[in-house]
Design a protein that fits this description.
disordered C terminus, homodimer, 4-stranded parallel β-sheet, about 425 residues, 12 helices, 5-stranded parallel β-sheet, alpha/beta
Amino acid sequence: MSQPLKDVVIVGAGFAGLSAARELAGAPVNVTIIDQQNHHLFQPLLYQVATAALTPAEIAVPIRHVLRRQSNAHVLMDRVRGVDADRQEVMAESGRAVRYDALVLATGARHSYFGKPHWAEHAPGLKTLNDAFGLREKILTAFEQAEIVVADDPEAARRFQTFVVVGAGPTGVELAGAIAELAQSVMRDFRRIDRNQNRIILLEGGPRVLPTFADSLSERAARDLADLGVDVRTGAMVTDITAGSVTTDQGEIHTETVIWAAGVQASPAGKWLGIPVGRSGHVEVDATLRPEGFENIYVIGDTARHEANGSALPGIAPVAKQMGIYVGRRLAKLASGQVPSNGFRYSDAGALATIGRNRAVADIFGLKVKGFAGWLLWGAAHVYFLIGFKNRLFVLLQWLWSYLTWQRGVRLIMHREVGEGSGDA
Amino acid sequence: MSQPLKDVVIVGAGFAGLSAARELAGAPVNVTIIDQQNHHLFQPLLYQVATAALTPAEIAVPIRHVLRRQSNAHVLMDRVRGVDADRQEVMAESGRAVRYDALVLATGARHSYFGKPHWAEHAPGLKTLNDAFGLREKILTAFEQAEIVVADDPEAARRFQTFVVVGAGPTGVELAGAIAELAQSVMRDFRRIDRNQNRIILLEGGPRVLPTFADSLSERAARDLADLGVDVRTGAMVTDITAGSVTTDQGEIHTETVIWAAGVQASPAGKWLGIPVGRSGHVEVDATLRPEGFENIYVIGDTARHEANGSALPGIAPVAKQMGIYVGRRLAKLASGQVPSNGFRYSDAGALATIGRNRAVADIFGLKVKGFAGWLLWGAAHVYFLIGFKNRLFVLLQWLWSYLTWQRGVRLIMHREVGEGSGDA
């Protein structure tokens, strides 16, 4: 590099960005990490917030707190609007320009609606705490609404008791299973609505659930979902979503709650760099995780598209984490005047998905684990990777509590606006 | 009563309404409890949610869950719009009319701004989980903003580091103390802003903090607040609040965060009944907690104004709870054809207020307790009265954790809108 590497700017404090920042502890650089949120989010458990099993604080931790002992790290809560690669500056919403010698873009992904952005309004997805919060609100309110209308309008109640999840990847499967369990558990507190009217429908365009898993695990997951009462419909392509209904090539479903767990769209990092990106917005990166033509800019995590053995790496936490560690180490070496290591290589430990209480499928180092053993493995892995000892402890306690009592701890509806002077009634 | 007492409708599931409902367990009536929220809220600890010490789920519990074993109780999440006393019906927002033989209005209170409703925008109050959430957001964001601007604009940073609480009743005192502690604790994670620039100012129009407590306890509370770094200003009347500033008769304070803990305004129950109410909207009730001219309507809790020994009872949880129990018992007797008991009599056990870690003042059965002993008493009382064993357990654990580690568990900023396709950066 033509100039000394002193200022490293990392945009995004997800698994990728935070791993890069931590890897730079002790390196002779200033690290500035910019995120529009004040917290790092443990996304793999986000669906448990959406289904009232965990509270937001149990899966999120202030970025400042994670980095409090790393003296070369500075955190800015701000939103990035663009990158000026010539001046080596990141432009933030606050008007600040942050100079960098090396830039790491780890800005994640959002949902995409296959070119139908207007579906978003009726079928929210699940990427942020806000999303989870909104979903929790929506799901819990649906039961309340059903209870209000059931006597006068059983058809409407049935719509409120119908939940449709679109997409049967790990998030969709976990959500459908968790909603089925939530429905079972809350029904004990309702008096009027009929539990037999609850329907949880999982729609998948492909031929099987968990398409990236082995066939045997897909089959087991589908069976486990059916046991929980989830109506799994594979080969069902969604053709329209409106208020109150989802249409697939197999017919129309009347529902007040649709959740989107299908496509994703990368962050606009490609646009910031002015480089061509595909339809999903991913930035193609080379073996050193840099887009072509950029000496000192790295793109990692869900925004990056990196091919290994002929296929792109999936947008999952372990990939993001390993990419962050790779770039962090590389920059640490460069800053110390050392020759950086070889290209990035992903070490694939496998994949996990939980379907519900006692049920999960795991494919770990080639070993296929199902049922209760899979579930224990899944729980241990997730608690282990939670950042911060306190969160681990409290998540374990929450789970233990829920497991023993069959109660959901966080059934709160909070977003409803309170009118002037109307009290708490 | 001219007709059999069969249907009891309770509006509001705060301390008053919920106590009345529970007292009716086993009585030969149908109880319908209507609330616009799905949860009962433990308001005395709301300030701890606003200051990131507790999570919402720890102080709130679904109303349905509280009443799940009370087979004669039905819960409706709906908003009441009016009462038709002639037809004996409550009108709800959903369009439903709910018939009653006896009606209990326990719809609480909101803040009032002494005839300056436009202050509300700049000086939010603290009555609901939403309020607490918004305040937490506002306080935590202020530190983040200060960190962003401090290098370029130290004056602005100082405004962001200044927190003003208006009103030194228990809520104001507890908030000011908790913000001072939060400021101390979060400052360890910030790099640029100067902790000596933090200012927490408590404004009180009267001559002393905690005006309803004994003089000696007021003095102790003021001293404890000063120890925590709170700038207590008594005899300071607020004359104006705008974006960025509070003006009192003592001068102007530049600040981005003002919290209102001064006046309250009763719910519109009086309006629903078409009876004259005072400026604060309270409904005057007789010894049986009924407004004049209504045979089968009770008004209890913060909406009611009930005189005992020449002065009105304060709007606090124990009063609300005892009123609820009284009305519940009265209705149970009436429903069973028994002669109801005597008039309501409030049994005053005293009052408590906490200032911070290790510091509280209590006036229990005439005994004045301060400092660490007061704090233990305060903690025990609050945990004891939390509804639901799980909440008690988790609140204790959270407190213990915070106490031992000096950490705030819930420092999350969640409400910031995430733009389209901008990822989690």
